Amino acid sequence: MTAQWHGFTDIEDVARYVEVVTVREDSTAPAAETTAVRLVGLLPPHWRCVPEVTGDRVRLWIERERGTSDTDIRRTVREVLADSALRGWTEQP
To answer: Which of 23, 46, 64, 73 is the most buried (most CB within 10 A)?
Structure first.
């Protein structure tokens, strides 16, 4: 599963997005495809997010919202990663 940017009219404006990369650190953790679905499902429902899956990595492109900082976005992703359904996955610095 690899999400593509097709259909996004503002892709040229990548600066509008925060890139967050998560990696599997435990071989018994769920596969990247399952993790991508779980991550997106646990993020705030109003966030516009595009996942990209390759190997044991999930890259999320999360659109910046007015009043939401990159720090806020990363903090929320870390909180989501603390969910037991995502055990074995961590944010890559």
So the answer is: 73
